[in-house]
Q: What sequence folds into this?
């Protein structure tokens, strides 16, 4: 994981989610597409369309519906800045506490995100295991 800071702080088209995805995939944030480009499609649908080239897609799990994921995931939390908005941070299920923790907040403002503000996880999953290349990196 290579932390990337968000470039756009906005309650309409912020790029915290794309910054978290770039961080997990270790891709330069400047090369990430705008997942809000098409206002008629959900951000995650646009992200999944882009992720197809990597044989990946996102699955979402509401907080409490499953145990927290192992490895890296994008955790949706209540925004500390904008009312009725969510914010994305990078989660790692590889913490020493055995449960996991937030390991990167792409917001230039930062801040603490208490557990009660956690909404759910976006987890990267392989679309087609038959197309996996052992040792391949993004």
A:
């Amino acid at each position: 994981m290579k932390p990337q800071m968000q470039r756009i702080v906005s309650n309409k088209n912020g790029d915290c989610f794309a910054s978290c995805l770039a961080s997990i995939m270790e891709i330069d944030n400047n090369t990430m597409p705008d997942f809000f480009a098409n206002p008629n499609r959900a951000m995650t649908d646009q992200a999944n369309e882009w992720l197809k080239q990597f044989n990946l897609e996102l699955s979402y799990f509401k907080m409490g519906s499953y145990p927290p994921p192992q490895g890296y995931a994008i955790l949706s939390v209540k925004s500390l800045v904008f009312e009725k908005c969510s914010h994305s941070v990078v989660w790692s299920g590889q913490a020493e506490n055995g449960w996991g923790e937030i390991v990167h907040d792409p917001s230039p403002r930062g801040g603490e995100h208490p557990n009660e503000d956690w909404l759910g996880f976006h987890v990267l999953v392989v679309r087609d295991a038959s197309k996996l290349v052992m040792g391949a990196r993004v």
